[in-house]
Amino acid sequence: MVNAGDMNGSGNLMDFLDEPFPDVGTYEDFHTIDWLREKSRDTDRHRKITSKSKESIWEFIKSLLDAWSGWVVMLLIGLLAGTLAGVIDLAVDWMTDLKEGVCLSAFWYSHEQCCWTSNETTFDDRDKCPQWQKWSELLVSQSEGASAYILNYFLYIMWALCFAFLAVSLVRVFAPYACGSGIPEIKTILSGFIIRGYLGKWTLLIKTVTLVLVVSSGLSLGKEGPLVHVACCCGNFFSSLFSKYSKNEGKRREVLSAAAAAGVSVAFGAPIGGVLFSLEEVSYYFPLKTLWRSFFAALVAAFTLRSINPFGNSRLVLFYVEYHTPWYMAELFPFILLGVFGGLWGTLFIQCNIAWCRRRKTTRLGKYPVLEVIVITAITAIIAYPNPYTRRSTSELISELFNDCGALESSQLCDYINDPNMTRPVDDIPDRPAGPGVYSAMWQLALALVFKIVITIFTFGMKIPSGLFIPSMAVGAMAGRMVGIGVEQLAYHHHDWIIFRNWCRPGADCVTPGLYAMVGAAACLGGVTRMTVSLVVIMFELTGGLEYIVPLMAAAVTSKWVADAFGKEGIYEAHIHLNGYPFLDVKDEFTHRTLATDVMRPRRGEAPLSVLTQDSMTVEDVETLIKETDYNGFPVVVSKDSERLIGFAQRRELILAIKNARQRQDGVVSNSIVYFTEDPPELPPNSPHPLKLRRILNLSPFTVTDHTPMETVVDIFRKLGLRQCLVTRSGRLLGIITKKDVLRHMAQMANQDPESIMFN
User: Where, if anywhere, are coiled coils annotated (predicted)?
Assistant: First the structure.
């Protein structure tokens, strides 16, 4: 391990790497990286390049290329992430419509594209054209009646089951890591944890394909969270092409932070929101340099998606809305109520979903992932089809709920009773009494809301790609639209009430129900994820509603306060703890008055600490110690009697160094003395050749005294990204504290199961 002190040259890893071993400086799977060591290695590399750049023009050009490599990686990530997002959007659009019918003129056209190209489409019947035929029209030449409805219903379910089965089979066979949202694991990886294969090429390919399939199947999930995972896979692929990033896990994580920003940028068409999301929600280490690069990657990704124009509206998003009335102070009360609803829904969802996922992990249910997906898909399709608000794709539903009712809207939600004498401009339609279509839509929305709330609990966490942003927004948008219509009708029928009198005169356009849907969507998404700043920015970028930042802020803050009153964890942190990942959340506070001596190992009654001595152990002794223990490294002391600390040696590098020495150095045998000092020890004549391992020794391991408060130790682990620190008293080694020990102690203090922390 090489820490901050190595920048001064002590224990420098670079002289050890003059003839590098294979895999030196790398980490084993499911282990945490050492941030200080990675920082030190990058500093050494940079210093070496700078000094060489003065030697020749070629070296100077190489130094420039090295400096620009970061921006090149960002450009490539943005281009690929934007392209994949555009392709996914187009494919989802087509496959979602395929469940209901097919375009005869070109089968690869979605319903909307099919009718765009038709010359026989009228404005009133813009969703109907001869080229687009439902399955009943194509197979039995009937578009109405019970038999046509039953056939369409049956084929809708069959297509949904086919898509879901194909998706779960691909995930199970080719890329098990392609399941879920990916954000909990991305957060853990960015905090320094190694999960090999999680960001691999197979995961990228399978997640992209299966994401199209599961979203098209009609399951209650979204593609936005998984798009962050897809973008991070792109980041990992491109960083492996540049040694600056492929050989340094710390630098690689800077690239992945920027890739996460690009993922949100294309998921929502929100480049600034993407950067803030990466900063607020997923990144662990986010220097200013990464902020600029994230901004550039998000910009390129958004530009690429805009060039593809998947929604055909010259916008980055499907939900773009324009409202024509301002909001009024009296409306803050229903906005805050929506915030309370969002916080309560977030709490309910997290507790129920985690309980279900825990049941899946600990019972026989987890052994049948394919069957679980098929059953949930069948239930979703059977219940969703009869209700027009659950039958369509969730993105289209949110888009309709956000929309303002203009003069040309044909939606049931806009079935108001018009005044025949109205002579107002199209954009300024006054509040009107609700017609039968609105009341019918309210019942259907209420049923859809209950269905979405229940089915999302069971859907999120299955062995398929599943995002949570869109289902959460749909729940909030449905609740918000119903509240908005209620407030609108109240204002229309009781405009003489004191709360309406000042701002809602008869014949005025006072209340915009679509705005309530937007605020409700933000509140529910905030309640589940606990985002605040990035959420508000994403919402106004998503909808173009810059004027409505204050209502969005009020709802987001209220939902966070309400949800935090029941538990501080958002859904991603809850899944991290459920999986036992070693994640030290910067938001967690440690207020207990324990000391380092209470947490360090060995504890009283345990075997003494396994250590190496500086010049009295043989190669065989070291190999035996490595074989009999599974520790990540060993403290090096002067002798077992004095136990005065010299440094720390990593397990992996000891194995590699001994293996390399046996292959390359003559005279190194099992009874060769291993020494970590500058000069070899005095040995009797005819002794085998000693093995010097000082170059792999970290001479400045991080140490604390036994009376250091654990509050300070937790802060040190969090801010410096340590794997372990040694506990000493007056230079004498007493014990060791690893990241796992810290996390287990924090869990114990919070009355949770410390054994739930499975990795170091």
Answer: none
The residues near 411 (Cβ < 8 Å, ≥ 6 apart) are 400, 403, 405, 441
Q: How many Å apart are CA 609 and CA 629, to the nearest integer?
A: 11
Among the listed residues 181, 483, 475, 517, the one whose alpha carbon sits nearest the alpha carbon of residue 344: 475
Q: Burial code of 359-389, b = ≥16 C-beta within 10 A, e = fewer?
A: ebeeeeeeeebbebbbebbeebbeebbeeeb
Name the percent of the chain in helix, strand, coil, to the closest 5. 60, 5, 35
What would the two tokens of residue 275 be?
């950067």
**What pLDDT does residue 595 have?**
92
Contact 405, 515 (CB under 8 A): no
Residues 6+ apart with CB under 8 A from 489: 433, 434
CB 193 within 8 A of CB 32: yes
Cα-flanking dihedrals φ and ψ of residue 709, to 5°? -65, 145
Phi-psi map region of 192: left, alpha, beta (phi>0 left; psi -120 to 50 alpha)? left
**pLDDT value at position 315?**
67
Phi and psi at 208, nearest 5°, equal: -65, -45
pLDDT for position 426: 46
Closest residue by Cα to residue 404 from 510, 300, 475: 510
Q: Which overall architecture, per CATH, does domain 596-750 show? A: Roll (3.10)
- pLDDT value for 130: 80
**Token pair in block for residue 171:** 């995930």
SS (H, E, C) 217-259: CCCCCECHHHHHHHHHHHHHHHHCCCHHHHCCHHHHHHHHHHH
Q: Residue 16 is encoded by which pair of tokens?
A: 């050890």
This prediction's pTM:
0.89
Strands 132-134, 101-103: parallel, antiparallel or unpaired by DSSP?
A: antiparallel
- pLDDT averages per 10-residue partition of the chain, 760 residues: 35 37 67 87 90 88 90 96 93 90 84 75 63 85 85 93 96 93 93 92 95 94 93 95 90 94 91 93 88 95 89 68 78 93 96 94 87 95 93 90 74 75 52 80 94 95 92 95 90 74 67 91 94 90 80 94 91 91 83 90 86 89 91 90 90 88 81 86 80 87 93 91 91 91 89 74
Q: Do 110 and 100 touch, CB atoms closer than 8 A?
A: no
- Give CA separation, 82 vs 87, 88, 165, 302, 624, in Å: 9, 10, 27, 6, 52
Q: Which fold has domain 335-417+429-579?
A: Clc chloride channel (1.10.3080)
Please give the Cα distance from 521 to 523 (Å, whole number). 5
Cβ(479)–Cβ(449) below 8 Å: yes
Q: Which residues, including other chains, have CB under 8 Å from residue 28's CB and lie 6 or more apart? A: 194, 652
Q: Residue 354 and residue 190: Cα distance in Å, rounded?
A: 23
**Domains of the chain by residue range:** 335-417+429-579, 596-750
Beta-bridge partners for 704: 727
Two structure tokens written together for 631: 């520790």
Residue 523, judged by CB atoms within 10 A of its CB (0-12, 13-18, 19+), counts as buried
d(CA 515, CA 413): 14
